[in-house]
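User: Teach me something about this protein's shape.
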Amino acid sequence: MSPEQDSPAVEAATVDAAGAWADALERMEAELHRALAQAEPVPWRPPIALGPIPPELHDRAARLLEAQLHTIRYLEDVRQTTAKHLAAVKSVPRTEQGPRPVYFDLLG
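Assistant: First, the predicted structure itself:
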């Protein structure tokens, strides 16, 4: 290693980058938990000027990515199920005779 790479400035920059990435991952993990808890969504803003992710955070970032992909698949399944339910409800003919209960067979 060159003397420049061993300097305190390089070490401090590495620590700062790891801290910035750790903060960014923490925010993304919290957003993922909010999505699963059905909390109001918060617009995502990508982190700015973090540089490459430090090697010690690769596993954490990979786990976060996998959790995000799983959540996307889950939410898509929920969306499709909701669309089917909505289509079933919309298929019930409307009556103009006033408010009366309408029943339909969910099981088919």
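Now, about its shape. The radius of gyration is 25 Å. The chain has a mean pLDDT of 80. If you'd like, I can walk through any region in more detail.
User: That's plenty for now, thanks!
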